[in-house]
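S-layer homology domain-containing protein, Lysinibacillus pakistanensis. Tokens?
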Amino acid sequence: MKQRIEAEVFNDIPGNHLYFEEIGKVQQAGLFVGIDGNFQPKAYMTRAQMAKVLVLALNLTSTSTKKATFYDVPMTHWAHDYISILAANGITTGDNGSFRPNNPVTRAEFAVFLHRALKNLKTHQWLKIVDEFLRIANY
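Tokens:
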């Protein structure tokens, strides 16, 4: 996870927000871009958005993103490549050939995706990711 984007001020995240700095760091890392100048901290995350976050945060890759993986994720869908990368890495298997990209991701679903992603990482990858996240949040 490398910083790639200039800092953006979100209209709905005041400077005194509890997670102001952390939100800025994940935005700069390209994990979250906001919608119409807002971060929308109380909005739900879709399964497509979750796919993007996991792929970018964990530096996942695949060479097989040039075909449709799920019938409800056409190649023109903005998150097609992210979802295909999750599938190629065994992180998502779909449900009867569908991914449901616009559905809200539940905590249970996110936990399953994250568990599958992390169990496939090698130790050196794990350490690199932990180091990146420690730079985001100094807890």
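The chain has two domains: 1-43, 44-136.
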